[in-house]
Design goal:
With 314 residues, the chain is an alpha+beta fold. Helix content is 57%, strand content 12%. It folds into two domains: 179 residues, Four Helix Bundle (Hemerythrin (Met), subunit A), CATH 1.20.120; 116 residues, Beta-Lactamase (2-Layer Sandwich). The protein contains nine helices and five strands, in the order H-H-H-H-H-H-H-E-E-H-E-E-E-H. It has a five-stranded antiparallel sheet with strand order 2-1-5-4-3, with helices on one face. The structure holds fe (ii) ion (FE2) (2 copies).
């Protein structure tokens, strides 16, 4: 389980990453850059990213890591240097924003922003993936309680009560205005997405909000439960044997009513031990969009013991 102090730091990072994406969107725009939005984002990166988040690290978290045995010249030292670099960039970019918004965009304006974004993304990656896990191994439960309390204090002193929520509401609104959440699949072709879903050792199918089957993977591959193109567009009730239709209806009704998110079953089937699970698919507002079914032969997993850390021979 993630400790409270750690999810506090990581949520800050997610908020900062969201601001970076919004800045990138401004720079990539074909129409005129919205300099007011850019200023708001760089103000956030200074006020929240530096005066609040970086101070949690520099004033409390890093010193505690040093106390618990990390060398000052190691990763903590590197992180402090990067914070200084980030500050220099933010100050420079904020000063260039005035000129830029009056139509006189400095020659290195874009490259400064891109360098700042690269630096900050790398910094966040190093902390999330290297430094924080390192810290988790050496900090005590008492340290964690101490960090939680100190982080709250810094938040309150730097920006007042509820700063995280205020900024997260602001960034959500800006995200919506600039095209919504990042769509990671948008850069992949349908072919790659299909192949990716087919590469998994599971069978997936999707039933939409009107109970109609819309998708299944491994179209031409071997499957535990046979499916063919004729099921597409049929209602899920028409695709199940009569004796189990009442169960299907119950699951879907409960999912639609928001009373259920998951339903699981496991059965012996043709020398396999088949795990069948249903997951409600919802949008960010929690509205039901359909149900995904996953069928998996879990027999091979039941025999697993101990650990396996080495690669199989090809
Ligand atoms: Fe940092
Ligand atoms: Fe950080």
């Amino acid at each position: 389980m993630t400790s409270l102090y750690l999810s506090n730091l990581m949520s800050d990072h997610s908020l900062i990453e969201k601001a970076l994406v919004l800045i990138e969107r401004q720079l990539q725009k074909k129409t005129k850059i919205n300099f007011t939005a850019l200023r708001t984002l760089f103000d956030f990166l200074w006020d929240y990213g530096d005066l609040c988040h970086n101070m949690k690290e520099e004033k409390v978290y890093f010193p505690l890591l040093l106390e618990r045995g990390l060398p000052p010249s190691g990763p903590v030292g590197v992180m402090i240097l990067e914070h200084e670099e980030e500050r220099k960039f933010i100050n420079l970019i904020k000063s260039q924003l005035d000129e830029a918004s009056s139509g006189n965009i400095p020659a290195d304006f874009h490259s400064n922003i891109n360098s700042y974004i690269d630096l900050t993304k790398n910094h966040i990656w190093k902390e999330n993936d290297i430094l924080y896990p390192m810290g988790k191994r050496i900090l005590t439960p008492d340290d964690e309680i101490f960090l939680n309390a100190e982080f709250r204090k810094i938040e309150k002193e730097s920006l007042g009560e509820g700063a995280y929520l205020r900024y997260s509401t602001l960034l959500d609104a800006m995200e919506k205005e600039s095209g919504g959440k990042v769509d990671l699949l948008a850069s992949l072709s349908t072919e790659v997405i299909n192949n990716m879903l087919d590469a998994l050792p599971i069978e997936l199918s999707f039933v939409d909000a009107d109970d109609r089957v819309r998708y299944y993977n491994k179209m031409d591959g071997e499957k535990i439960f046979t499916r063919s193109l004729s099921v597409i567009g049929r209602t899920v009730q028409q695709c199940h044997p009569q004796k189990s239709v009442h169960l299907v209806n119950q699951i879907i009704e409960e999912m639609k009513a928001g009373k259920r998110d998951v339903a699981t079953f496991w059965i012996n089937f043709e020398n396999k031990y088949v795990h069948i699970s249903y997951y409600a698919v919802r949008n960010s507002a929690g509205e039901y969009q359909g149900c995904v079914e996953m069928v998996h032969d879990i027999k091979p997993y039941r025999e697993i013991e101990g650990e396996k850390r080495l690669l199989d021979e090809n």
